[in-house]
Amino acid sequence: MEPSTTVGCLWFIVIAFMFFAQHHVCDCYFVPAINVFVGKMKASSNTWLQRWGNEAVAGATICALGCNGPEMFTNLISLYTGSDAGIGVVVGSEIFNLLIIVGLT
């Protein structure tokens, strides 16, 4: 095999493993955590908290925070520390991510 074919096969195996690892972590940890969260919110006497007792609402909200939370806080830190990252890159990437995620779902 040529080096480019070998590298391509290796990348495919690594990416396939990463997808499997992400599936395993979400299945073993993320879904049970959402189920515990939903159970506690349903049991709450507060009507505002009971809205979070819906699995779809809790899953979508927690998933969105999990996906965009680290990037959002990194962008905020880079803004306040005077980093070289421009405000257009910081705000633009976050807006793009949120709009694409909402648009695709």
From TrEMBL:
GO molecular function ontology, one term from the record: calcium channel activity
GO cellular component, one term: plasma membrane
GO biological process: intracellular calcium ion homeostasis
Pfam families found in the cross-reference section: Na_Ca_ex
Keywords, ordered alphabetically: Antiport, Membrane, Signal, Transmembrane, Transmembrane helix, Transport
Main location group: membrane
Protein localization: Membrane
InterPro entries associated with the record: K/Na/Ca-exchanger, NaCa_Exmemb, NCX_ion-bd_dom_sf
Domain of life of the organism encoding this protein: Eukaryota
Record's bilayer topology term: Multi-pass membrane protein
Domain named Sodium/calcium exchanger membrane region: residues: 24-104
Gene3D superfamilies attached to this UniProt entry: NCX, central ion-binding region
Signal peptide location: 1-28
Family: Belongs to the Ca(2+):cation antiporter (CaCA) (TC 2.A.19) family. SLC24A subfamily.
PANTHER family: SODIUM/POTASSIUM/CALCIUM EXCHANGER (PTHR10846), SODIUM_CALCIUM EXCHANGER MEMBRANE REGION DOMAIN-CONTAINING PROTEIN (PTHR10846:SF73)
Protein name in the entry: Sodium/calcium exchanger membrane region domain-containing protein
Record organism: Effrenium voratum
